[in-house]
Design a protein that fits this description.
The protein is mainly α and 332 residues long. 42% of the residues lie in helices and 3% in strands. It is elongated, with a radius of gyration of 33 Å.
Length: 332
């Protein structure tokens, strides 16, 4: 049976358990239980109360208005702390079904002990990471930005500042930049301006035969940086130089040019954007892990299924073909 309204318990009895309904009707008021009274009250409200039914209709309409206003809003999940923290254990050989000793939230005290007043949760960890006395965070960040500009970090192993990594080529410079970075309020723009307006950065990148023998990798910064831009920066640079770049900030991912049928590999459909989306910065390009954007990935962009602190840089014929034939570069 199909109904166009919500039905009460008694109406369900009329359909399925008539004996039970008959017993309920034959009871005197004095012998009715609280559950019986609730069922009878609901039956009356559903079928005979005009006020109740008008209120239900009004509620239904209000809910529809609410849903219509909320649906266009994008929702994301937000994490919060559990009221009772889950106990964690050291796992025997990594097996989840073989817990051994209990472990508790803490930080590597050899790096920098956490302030006892901080909570042992994500907020406390964030404050520990960005504490001005933490020797690691600012140096790691500064080294990454230096690596982006010079093609080589002051610490080459930007993914490893531990005892397995390399020592900094210019430790005092790294210290000074890190302190300036923290004192500026972690101002990334100021940091870049400081580096790029230095005489070191503004040197010619032309290399002499003598320097090539002594310092091929420019470890000692005797010349300016000469390194290829990343795939994203290369595309953005071409768009900016040609005046095509759409400098809008924020918004949803966009779908610029890519070969037809590429997403059919895994059953997807790619609908190319109009002019507004074609020339947005590469950071807004939609990224499908199984089918990455071919223009950007050709220039050694990582697949994003693993964290990567240093990109490999290759020089292949395919990269030249992309610049010669990709619609974005042709239009630029």
């Amino acid at each position: 049976m199909v109904f166009d309204k919500e039905i009460s318990d008694i109406e369900v009895m009329q359909i399925s358990t008539t004996d039970k309904l008959k017993n309920l009707v034959e009871k005197s008021y004095a012998t009715l239980t609280d559950e019986d009274k609730e069922q009878l009250e609901k039956y009356y409200l559903f079928n005979y109360s005009k006020t109740y039914n008008e209120a239900v209709v009004a509620l239904k309409n209000d809910r529809k208005v609410l849903v219509d206003s909320i649906e266009p809003i994008k929702q994301i999940m937000v994490m919060k702390e559990r009221e009772t923290p889950r106990q964690s254990y050291i796992l025997d050989r990594g097996n989840y079904d073989s817990p051994t000793d209990s472990v508790f939230p803490n930080v590597p005290t050899e790096i920098f002990p956490i302030d006892g007043s901080l909570p042992k949760n994500r907020l406390g960890l964030a404050k520990w990471i960005t504490d001005k006395d933490n020797p690691l965070t600012a140096r790691v960040a500064v080294n990454r930005y230096w690596q982006n500009l010079f093609g080589r970090g002051l610490v080459v192993t930007s993914e490893d500042f531990g005892n397995q990594g390399e020592l900094p080529s210019h430790p005092k410079l790294l210290d000074w930049l890190a302190i300036q970075f923290v004192e500026s309020g972690w101002d990334v723009k100021t940091l870049h301006k400081t580096i790029m307006m230095s005489s070191t950065y503004q040197q010619s990148s032309v290399i002499s035969d003598e320097l090539l023998k002594i310092d091929k990798e420019n470890k000692w910064l005797a010349r300016g940086p000469s390194t290829r831009l990343s795939g994203e920066m290369l595309r953005d640079n071409a768009l900016y130089a040609s005046g095509l770049l759409n400098e809008t900030i924020g918004g949803e991912s966009v779908r610029p040019y890519q070969p037809e049928g590429l997403w059919k590999v895994n059953g997807g459909t790619y609908v190319q954007d109009g002019e507004e989306g074609l020339y947005r910065r590469s950071m807004y390009t939609i990224w499908k892990r199984t089918v990455p954007n071919p223009t950007i990935s050709t220039f050694d962009a990582p697949t994003r299924d693993l964290c990567s602190s240093r990109r490999q840089k290759t020089n292949t014929p395919l990269q030249a073909l992309v610049i010669l034939n990709d619609p974005t570069y042709i239009e630029a």
